[in-house]
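Amino acid chain:
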Amino acid sequence: MSQPWSISASPRGPVSLWMAIALGLTSCTATSTVPQSETTTPEGELQVVTTILPMTQFTKAVAGDRAEVIQLLPPNVGPHDYQAKPADVQAIADADVLVQNGLELEVFLDDLIDNAGNADLAIIDSSVGIDVIAFAEEDHGDDHASHDDHGHDHDEKGASAEADHHHHGEFDPHVWLDPKRAIAQIENIRDGLIAVDPAGEAEYTANATAYIEQLKALDQDITERLAPYAGQTFVSFHDFAFYFADSYGLKAEFLVDVPEETPSPDDVQRILETTEAGNLKALLTEPQVGEAAFAALAKDLKVSIAVFDPMETGETAAMDPEDYFTIMGENVESLEAAFGAAAE
């Protein structure tokens, strides 16, 4: 298995060039969560920058009080809508460690890292070594592969993959939605932090072990609760739930690809047929999007709407590591509501 961390060897470039980066990124009106006042930590304290909400939850769980963990993206902005700010480049320039999900979810990072010019930056790719699911046009992602070290190989395959599957890379990046795979992400983060800060090995190991035990308990609870629905298909708004479905013997269908919001007539017909065939009682929307699009469908099908939170975005309070378990518990409740009498 490849190591989940690396040391950036990018040449130092002036932070003032950040504007050139921003012009190539997707527009968004939200501001960064990394104000200049937060980019300086007490002398000697490890400074860690994370990308999206699950990476922040997992990194905080492992780092504990030994490091300052700062999320690069605003918590209410997903990676598809992110636009860089000058403070974001500076945050990476000042950081010791960058923790990313990987699997081409954070395609904006390459230019930010190059522009930050932090030659000592350690980059932890949390998805290294994880059994991943490849996106496929016909089967919506049933193909599996092992993710050994994709890192920043976007130039070689990113363009073709994006053309084949809209804004996705080759593999589904939502590995954190499966607690089993989340354990592997925790282990990668732990090992990466130890490599940078060997003196903290005991603390990082103890913190990771405690969180992993919680993840194992969550996995067991989900397994027991969803066992009656083995083989059943549920319907979400976006295509983010393949790992969860794979882990618990379910099948996932979706209305539109991330980050699309407007379904085609064929998309609608496919979901109508899936919902009726599975005798589903609810369609699964997201906290930020999907309810309006599902409303008419739900009315026609005489079903309700529940929420499955993919956790790419959330409230600031959701950065707490314990919120992962709260949200996942709520997701399981929504699935139970969706299946209803489907297993009868």
About this structure: The chain has two domains: 5-215, 228-343. The chain is about 40% helix and 15% strand. The domain at 5-215 is CATH 3.40.50.1980 (Rossmann fold). The CA atoms of residues 210 and 235 lie 33 Å apart.
